[in-house]
Design brief:
- This protein is an alpha+beta fold.
- The chain has helices at residues 20-30, 32-37, 75-97, 108-111, 131-145; strands at residues 5-12, 42-47, 55-60, 65-69.
- The chain has a 4-stranded mixed sheet, covered by helices on one side.
- A hairpin with a 4-residue loop joins strand 3 (55-60) and strand 4.
- Helix 1 (20-30) packs across helix 3.
- The longest helix has 23 residues, at 75-97.
- The radius of gyration is 26 Å and the shape is elongated.
- The two termini are 45 Å apart.
Length: 149
């Protein structure tokens, strides 16, 4: 998750009962696997003394910032949103690297074109010792699937 981010800032009042999402998200950010994915991502924690609702602010690698209301959004949902947006940013970067405009616009008439048929190959695995049953089943599969070798 951190590989898509340059900064994470978590703000909460430790005495506020609404901090569960912040604490869980902080634990996910401090996990060894997350830290290894992007050691340069700065994770900052601000413990407040006021009655402000807990919030999680993230800055993506491309500079885009997003703020999550930690009272209404579970940590897992925040993580999923970050991963989805990060994958989208990765895809966008790949297109830019090869010089293709983003987003890719597909003409409406291409969306309604029929898809060409594909050849189907079947792989059948058996652990049975009855070779006659295996052979007859294989002939059936060849006939039904129209397999060409």
């Amino acid at each position: 998750m951190l590989k898509f981010l340059s900064r994470v800032r978590i703000e909460f009042n430790a005495l506020d009962p609404r901090t569960a999402s912040c604490m869980e998200f902080l634990a996910q950010c401090n996990a060894p696997k997350a830290k290894e994915s992007n050691p340069s991502c700065a994770v900052q924690v601000k413990r407040c003394t006021d009655d402000e609702p807990p919030k999680i602010m993230v800055t993506f690698a491309n500079g885009v910032e997003e703020v999550f209301d930690a009272t209404a959004t579970p940590a897992q949902n925040i993580r999923i949103k970050i991963l989805e947006k990060g994958r989208m940013l990765e895809t966008e970067q790949m297109f830019h690297d090869v010089g293709v405009a983003w987003p890719v616009l597909i003409p409406a008439e291409e969306l309604t074109q029929p898809v060409p048929a594909t050849k189907v190959h079947a792989l059948v695995l058996f652990s049975a010792l009855d070779l006659e049953a295996v052979s007859s089943l294989w002939h059936f599969v060849e006939h039904v699937m129209c397999i060409d070798e």
